[in-house]
Amino acid sequence: MGFGDxxxxxxxxxxxxxxxxxxxxxxxxxxxxxIVVFEAIAAPPPADLFHALRWYNxxxxxxxxxxxxxxxxxxxxxxGPADVEDTTDAATxxxxxxxxxxxxxxxxxxxxxxxxxxxxxxxQYESKKSKKPAVxxxxxxxxxxxxxxxxxxxxxxxxxxxxxxxxxxxxGSSKLVPVGYGIKKLQIQCVVEDDKVGTDMLEExxxxxxxxxQSMDVAAFNxx
Length: 224
Known about the structure:
This protein has 224 residues and is an alpha+beta fold. Among the domains are: 9-78, no CATH class; 138-223, 2-Layer Sandwich (Alpha-Beta Plaits), CATH 3.30.70.60. 35% of the residues lie in helices and 20% in strands. The protein has seven helices and four strands; from the N terminus they run αααααβαββαβ. It has a four-stranded antiparallel sheet with strand order 2-3-1-4, covered by helices on one side. The longest helix is centred in the middle third of the chain and has 19 residues, at 112-130. Keywords: Elongation factor, Protein biosynthesis.
């Protein structure tokens, strides 16, 4: 297992591919595994590695709570994809890739027939890679939105929250939950596309309604 050097472009690409269908390094909630990998990265991944960047920004939001996250820290090499992935597609890809001489012949002269064959195989290889379907990662998030006091208009607070619109964001059901002293918080569900909408953006947009909102917390975060 392992990602390689996460300070290098190659290591970050491995991490990005690994997170294409995952929200976290292990399991379905943030853990010490995420912290170990996060701390091994020198800077935020570039925008084209959007799976890694989405994960990086999400884990960064747990900076103050990282010591309390579940799990036990292990060596970085204990996390990541296995060296050999036993799937039919991977085995086929590997065989096809071995047949392709990406660097051409070592001979100074190359016959026209060999050159044409090599170019055809390169074209087939690139075509096969481009046809692999992109995975859209989605998450279901339960938010706790707290008002300032018991006199806050909760209907208006919810109206403000639902007024937030973004590509990849869908609001769901909601309810008011008592928290004490006559104060109720708004608990509201939403579904997001991970590479388009993050919890940082939601918190920034929701707390901007400062006449009604005191704070916002993530009550539950589940990969769909």
